[in-house]
Amino acid sequence: MKNIHNLTIVIPVHKITKDDQKFFESCITSLKTQNLSSNEVVLIHTKETDLDLINEVLTKQKFKSKIKFMLNEGKTDFYSQVNTFAKECKTEWFSILEFDDQLSKNSLDYFIQYKEAYSGIKMFLPLVADTDTEENFLKFGNDMGLVNSHDNLTPTETIRRLGFVDFDMVNTHVLYRPIGAFIKTGEFIDCGMFKTNIKFHQQFEFMLRWCHKENETMTMFKLGYQHIVGRKKSHDSIIIESKPTGEEFNFWLEKAKKEYYFPFEREIDTEPIKKEGEVIELNAEKNGV
Amino acid sequence: MQTIQDLEQKVEALKESREKLLNKKNNIFFFLTESEVESAAVYEIYLHAKYLKDIGYSVKIITDTDNYQHPKFLDEDMKTIEIFNISKKDNNLTISPCDYLIIPELFTNIMHQVHQQKLPCSKIVLFQSYTNAFKGMLPAASWKEWGINNVITTSKAMTDYLKEYFGKEYDIQTWKLGIPDYFKPSDKPKKSVITFFSRNPKEVELVIKSFYAKYPHLRFITFQEIKNFTREELGKVLGQSIATIWIDRHAAHGTIPLEAMKANSIPIGIIPELEHNQEQWFIKDNTGIWLKNILKIPEYLSKIVMSFIQDQMPEEVQKGMKEISEKYSVETSKQSILKAYQFYFVKRDEEFKQFIESNTKVIKEYKTKETENTKE
Predict the structure, then answer these.
(1) Residue B37 pLDDT > 50
(2) How far apart are CA A155 and CA B215, in angstroms?
(3) How many helices (H) and strands (E) does chain A have?
(4) Does chain A have fewer CB atoms within 10 Å around its N or its C terminus?
(5) Which DSSP category does B79 fall into?
(6) Nearest CA of chain B to the CA of A127: how many Å?
(7) Parallel, antiparallel, or unpaired: how do β-strands A102-103 and A217-228 relate?
(8) Which residue from A104, A144, A221 is facing B190, i.e. has the nearest CB?
(9) B230 touching A, CB under 8 A?
(10) pLDDT beneath 50, residues of chain A
(11) Closest to A222 (Cβ–Cβ): which among B221, B241, B309?
């Protein structure tokens, strides 16, 4: 059967434990509510991934036949997993779904609707609901993509431009996240994919680079993605637990603002933020911090 | 003292006027000036003028404002209507009994002047705003004192208001508003915009600031005032907005909520003070959100936004809006406008006919008597 949407949803998984099971179950449930066609979901895993747990959830959810598995034998951090998948992706579009997150109901339909209306767009960002582990709403993500950031426009032009995200907007607001977005695969690769040598601000650096290349980007005025904040050993938790100093955080922010200009990874001198005796680990094992 | 010859002349003149009236050779003048007449009302005036022009009448906008120009928000075909400036030195306007002068309710000074100058034309008040009707009028004064008893207005509610406050002696015709088809939902997904209209900027400021204060997570909503758009531009803007705030307590009818409904932008409005028969108006549970307290607006706005982004907009409301807006078609409106004026054309014709018949009889009787006297 055909992949009619020319889209693959990729779920990168490295380490998953029993504690994570309920989140993964919710993730799969959210996929089941979408109008998926065949071969649209790929789970990219590593040798250390607990496939028994994964299969247990998929079997219980009757979703096993709808997922293809891809083994990643390279670097295991989150962003490397995504890059590895992208290089093998055969569809025109792909979207990243973290295994502890959920797609909103109709998320795929929103993408189709917007893609039909705006044929030149290369990335559709969803409005993201950040929630805690009990699914209590905390805030929206990508919402600044819906706001006009340009002066001196007529009202009709202002309204026309709402939703379009450009370099200045990303540079000003920082917090745009391509996780959950629908991205053109070819352009993602041409752009240089995620840089794994950037710490904390990989998504920001990518978005700067993406927009710098003038890839038309739009935020959909629809709730498309639910991101769980604070799951143990998730991105956010590892960042918090590593207790970065303000200096470290800003160092990587400034690096992101400089490195976007280059489509390839360059060597980054981390001497300025090195604590005595410390070795700074890049490409941290769990989730690409 | 009037002689029989004077009467004969008058009868002949009226026969001529009647002929002109029946053959659409008379003039219809719409008085306008740059003033407080709001743009929706001005648009309706031009619409009446355009429809009458389209069926063959000679129609002019007459004004006393120097350099008066057609407002920019009008449709292009309305801007072809001739403007006649009576304040210009060499401009002399000839007005005949078969002509009509249409005066918006705001211009009581013109009603007074026309009466003083004893202009022979038929006068009709175009009554769209009851708040404007008393401007410039002395207490207990009325249009009847200026020889005006013909009115065209927008609804039964306005008719009832007129009868209650101005008296029952007026002939009143109503027309139905029409919403053009360029008011429609955008063919692209709606934007994160809420449009608004209010006569009081402070009230809207209160609503918007309260909204952002109470719902800071909805900071991505843009509020756009409905102001200075052409009608077609407004159609596009409403087509992209998810909701339209409407605060107009003195609205006689309310075009904006209907335009919003047709564009699938949910109206959230304050119920106007003029009471309406529910069957004749559009305030129903399934046509929008209708409130008495503006402090409630932010709460309903947040519900609309959250419903929209999750595809949970109530279907019965969208259905209700569509049903109502379909009743306000351009064609229905046009026919009702022409019917209203046709009533006064017929009325005038009857007046001429009666005058001609009765005075012809008088002339005949007089001449017969004269002949008899001569014989004797």
Answers:
(1) yes
(2) 24
(3) 10, 10
(4) N
(5) G
(6) 8
(7) antiparallel
(8) A221
(9) no
(10) 282-289
(11) B309
User: What whole-number distance in Å separates Cα of residue B110 and Cα of residue B108?
Assistant: 5
Interface contact flag, A143 B187, Cβ < 8 Å: no
Neighbours of B10 (CB within 10 A): 15
Quick: pLDDT tens for B113-129: 999 999 999 999 999 99
Residue reference for tokens 């604070």: A230
Nearest chain B residue (CA) to A128: B309
Residue B215 in contact with partner chain A when CB distance is under 8 A: no
Contacts 24+ apart (CB under 8 A), A274-280: A280/A199
Residue B147: CB atoms within 10 Å: 13
> CB–CB of A117 and B189 under 8 A?
yes
At B175-204, the pLDDT tens digits run 999 999 999 999 999 999 999 999 999 999
Which position has the token pair 């087509």?
A: B239
Q: pLDDT tier at B137 (50, 70, 90 boundaries)? A: confident
Of A105, A143, A162, the CB nearest to B191: A162
Distance CA B258, CA B265 (A): 10
Longest dimension (CA), chain B: 104
CA A112 to chain centre: 19
Which value does ipTM take for this structure? 0.90
Asked if B217 and A139 come within 8 Å (Cβ–Cβ), the reply is yes
What's the pLDDT at A39?
Answer: 82
Burial tier of A270 (Cβ tally within 10 Å: 0-12, 13-18, 19+): middle
CA dist., res. B265 & res. B223, Å (int): 13
**Cα–Cα distance, B246 to B232 (Å, whole number):** 19
Amino acid, res. A277: G
Q: Specify the pLDDT at position B288.
A: 94
Place of tokens 């099971």: A21
Provide the pairing of β-strand A217-228 with A67-71: unpaired
What residues have CB less than 8 Å from B146, skipping those under 6 apart?
B111, B112, B114, B115, B123
**Spatial CA neighbour of A135 closest among A229, A224, A225:** A229
Q: How far apart are the first and last CA of chain B?
A: 27
Evaluate whether A1 touches A37 at the Cβ level (below 8 Å). Answer: yes
Q: How many CA atoms lie within 13 A of A254 on its CB side?
A: 11
Q: How many H helices and E strands in chain B? A: 11, 12
Angle at which helix B4-22 crosses helix B330-375, to 10 degrees, equals 150
- Give the amino acid at B339: K
Look at residues B78, B89, B84, B88 and name the one whose alpha carbon lies nearest to residue B101.
Answer: B84
Any idea which residue has 């409106």 for tokens?
A: B333
CA-wise closest residue to B150 among B170, B121, B174: B170
Q: Six-digit token pair at A125?
A: 């960002």
Output the DSSP codes for B166-203.
H-S--EEEE------TT----SSPPPSEEEEEES-HHH
* Strand A41-45 relative to strand A137-141, pairing: unpaired
Cβ atoms of A222 and A127 within 8 Å: the answer is yes
